[in-house]
Design a protein that fits this description.
single chain; alpha+beta; nine-stranded antiparallel β-sheet; 7 helices; 17 strands; binds pyridoxal-5'-phosphate
Length: about 350
């Protein structure tokens, strides 16, 4: 075993095939044992449930090398729990979370040579997903499914420091009340593609979605939760039934309260209030926190005091503490770090 010859620090966030992936099939009402395979392709019916009615849910997490040389994953049990919840909402048979963690561990182990070395900022991104694989033409759930876990090495999210981004308030909605915004499903992304391409064309990095019912409360972006900091240092995160429960955001809330002694409020956040905040960031696995410097609402600019050059001070402390915990430089809460090898 030897690390692959990859320029780790210059990897981008793009798919690159690795040696092995885990595959388990659901047939006749049960999941099989599953195997690691070298075949990175899938052959399914042209009428498969996933192709016709988008019956698929997914997860995303990272494996990386800690300061003391272990390969670890961050809270994979929460990804397993969330995939169970997502599956139930789309009538997909649950892949049990304990077996999920086993499959993730096996896949990472089998691709250990692709886990970037400590200090490069790069990680091995892990993508578990389930999809309806049998034919369905009348609208109903498929009878057969595939659960699959593949990995791909990805570069450091911020090359040369975290630069604050500019986002816009979007005129389209991401998720309806009582819809599917709280589950991790490809369908939530398909309908966001038009908006993100348009945002990029207009010079914005991301879309801020407001609640679909009243368009007065902050929800999230296409793929990350918001975290705000008030002028007196309180951390505020939007609460809503149509936001995807980010594991990064939940971990940051814990870090804010238990490591940094900050006050945290998880509550509905009126868009009206955003102009009064001191800092803003986007939370997700990929970046941990991506600082937001400016929000544009139909020509009206909200510029956070933290500016366009660096992360705000509280955001930075949160970022440093959580990444310190992940990398093994700060003691982690019980159960947060899953040692793979
Ligand atoms: C995956 C995802 C996030 C971030 O969740 P993490 O568990 O922190 O990676 C946020 N919003 C949406 C819509 C997502 O799909």
């Amino acid at each position: 075993m030897a690390k692959k010859n990859i320029d780790w620090s210059n990897l981008s966030f793009a798919y690159q095939k690795t040696d092995k992936r885990f595959v388990s099939n659901y047939k006749d009402g049960k999941w099989d044992e599953g195997v690691l395979t070298e075949d990175s392709t899938i052959t399914i019916s042209e009428c498969a449930g996933v192709l016709q009615y988008a019956q698929t849910v997914f997860e995303g997490l990272k494996a990386y090398t800690t300061a003391d040389g272990h390969i670890v994953a961050f809270r994979p049990d929460l990804n397993g729990q969330r995939l169970e919840n997502s599956a139930r909402r789309l009538e997909i048979p649950v892949y049990p979370k304990d077996k999920f963690v086993d499959a993730v561990v096996k896949t990472i182990k089998a691709n250990a040579d692709y886990v970037p070395p400590y200090g490069t900022g790069a990680t091995l991104y892990v993508r578990p997903f389930i999809f309806g694989s049998s034919a369905v033409i009348g609208v109903k759930p498929a009878d057969e499914y595939q659960f699959r876990v593949f990995t791909t090495p990805v570069g450091p999210y911020f090359k040369g420091g975290a630069k604050p981004i500019t986002i816009r308030v979007c005129d389209y909605d991401r998720a309806a009340p009582h819809g599917t915004g709280h589950i991790k499903a490809g369908l939530n992304y398909a309908m966001s593609l038009y908006q993100i391409v348009d945002a990029h064309n207009q010079g914005y990095d991301e879309n801020m979605y407001l609640d679909a019912a009243t368009r007065t409360y902050v929800e999230e972006t296409g793929g990350a939760n918001f975290l705000f900091v008030t002028k007196d240092g309180t951390v505020v995160t939007p609460k809503s039934g149509s936001i995807l429960p980010s594991i990064t955001r939940r971990s940051l809330v814990y870090v804010a309260e238990h490591y940094l002694g900050l006050k945290v409020e998880q509550r509905p956040v009126p868009f009206e209030e955003v102009k009064d905040f001191a800092e803003c960031g986007l939370c997700g696995t990929a970046a941990v926190i991506s600082p937001v410097g400016k929000i544009v609402d139909h020509g009206k600019e909200i510029c956070f005091p933290s500016g366009m050059d660096e992360m705000g001070p509280v955001t930075k402390k949160l970022y440093d503490t959580l990444t310190g915990i992940q990398m093994g430089n700060i003691e982690a809460p019980e159960g947060w770090i899953k040692v793979i090898k």
